[in-house]
Amino acid sequence: MNIAGIHTTKPRTQRYVDAFVRGTPGPNKMYQFRDLANLPEENLTMYGILAGSGEVYKWCEKENKDFYFMDHGYFTNAHDHPHWLRITKNKHCQNILQNRPTDRYEKNFKQDIKPWNKEGSRILVLPPTNAIANFFGAEDWLDTTLKTLKQHTDRPLDVREKPYNPTVAVDHVGATVKVERPTVNKGKINWTDYYATVTYNSNTMVASLANGVPVLCDPENCAAAPISETDFTKVESPKYGDRVALFSSLAYNNFSLKEMNDGTAWRILNG
Length: 271
Hints:
- By secondary structure, the chain is of the alpha/beta class.
- The chain has two domains: 3-94 and 253-269; 122-249.
- The protein has helices at residues 14-22, 53-63, 103-109, 130-136, 141-152, 204-210, 243-251, 257-261, 264-269, and strands at 3-7, 29-32, 43-47, 67-72, 85-89, 122-126, 157-159, 167-170, 176-179, 194-199, 215-217, 254-255.
- The chain has a six-stranded mixed β-sheet with strand order 2-1-3-4-5-12, sandwiched between helices. A four-stranded parallel β-sheet has the order 7-6-10-11, with helices on both faces. The protein has a two-stranded antiparallel sheet with strand order 8-9.
- The longest helix has 12 residues, at 141-152.
- It is globular, with a radius of gyration of 19 Å.
């Protein structure tokens, strides 16, 4: 099956979609989201869940069509160079632990992994962004999670919203788009304060695990799930899984622009 890319109302993401499609076998084809009346016959590639990509993602799920989803990488932020993206097939993140060698992790993303911190006194709570909550129907996640945690721990709960967290709305072509609003950057996290991190699917889970703070998270939409507790009633007994195994697995779903262009990403994702 040939692969085609989806161009949305967010032009700066197009070069990543184009690069991945160029690295696949067969002809390269692109579609504009605003021009789609029907789902194309090709399997599709999209970036993120805003500006029309999320609508195509759900369209593919509904029609049982294979798709490749890309978004910010697991180990780096959106402004790092080179810019790494995570790419997964038919899902939002890599939520299954793959048996992968450590080579890509050690070459590109290796970091100091600290011993597990079992002396922390507080719980860090990282709610989904407005866009993620809207996309996955998790608008009540924070209220429900805080209620559960308060029933199962006496530790102080620190809720930390993502510094950049616009609200969302649907525009005139049916695309979910950002609506800007002021946000507050609360500065760096002092990981030694924390006994556990509870999150829906924040990529901050990588920093938490690397700094010795175990994670509790959503079982389907968080990449930490394979080595982490997903039952929030067990907040006082988190899992202390194999972090190198997880990071090595995620490194094989994290790609540079060059690896998209030359087909490395395609070959790895397709075995």
